[in-house]
Amino acid sequence: MWRSRAGGVLLVLILLIPGAGLQAQEEASPAEPAPAPALAGPAPSLPEPAEDAVFFADVLVRGQPVFQVGSLTGLSASDRAQIINRRIGGLLSQAQELDAVTVQVDEGRQIALLTVNNRVLMTVTQQDATDFGLTVEALAQQWADRLNQVLAQPNLVIDVLQRLDGTARQLVDDTIVLLPSLMGAIVLVGLTWIVALGVR
User: Fold this and answer.
1) Closest CA to 110 of 133, 132, 127, 93
2) Which of 93, 110, 136, 192 is the most exposed place for a label (fewest CB within 10 A)?
3) Whether the Cβ atoms of residue 56 and residue 69 lie closer than 8 Å to each other
4) Domain boundaries, the chain
5) Comparing C-alpha atoms, which of 98, 101, 170, 104 is closest to residue 137?
6) Within 13 Å and on the Cβ side, how many CA atoms surround 26?
7) Is the pTM of this model over 0.85?
8) Shortest CA distance to 85 belongs to which of 68, 72, 100, 102?
């Protein structure tokens, strides 16, 4: 009997002791696995989000969007469009008549310049051509055609001001031509009035 009790106790101990060892290991180990050892060498850097998340910006002529330009190395799309818009605005503010926008291709540098009145409006780069799936020359010609089309349209305000200016000049010219006749008429009316006063 003693043997059967000792065998039962031994059996219970054999079954419980490994379970207690596992429980002790679970309590001793952290809940999360240990991080893997770091590899030697520089850590890969993730690209930082750009401050200016605008990839393309509008080029405007008289407030009307004509086409979009992308960013270049060191120049955001917004800044690039502002520079081009300022150049176009400067040309439009001059009284000088604008020539057609022309394309000057530089094969060696793989760029094209859009110029008007001997001033560079913008540069079309290989990156621009890649962005729009065209060659540099084809994209530059497309943008030049769009600019020529919009620049050829007179601005309504400018058109009205030019017509008013023309009308005012014509009025002044006609007044100068008719001034002797007008002076003669005033003198005649004055003399007639004096005679009428004398007759009374």
Assistant:
1) 127
2) 93
3) yes
4) 56-152, 154-189
5) 104
6) 6
7) no
8) 68
Structure tokens given for 75: 């120049």
Q: What is the dihedral of CA 84, 90, 94, 99, to 10 degrees?
A: -10
Q: Which residue has the tokens 């040309």?
A: 91
Which tens digit of pLDDT belongs to each residue from 50-95? 454 678 999 998 888 999 999 998 999 999 999 999 999 888 888 7
60: helix, coil or strand?
Answer: strand
* pLDDT, tens digit (0-9, with 9 covering 90-100), for 162-196: 778 788 888 888 888 888 888 999 999 999 999 99
| Measured distance CA(104)–CA(136) in Å, rounded | 11
- What is the SS3 assignment for 46? coil
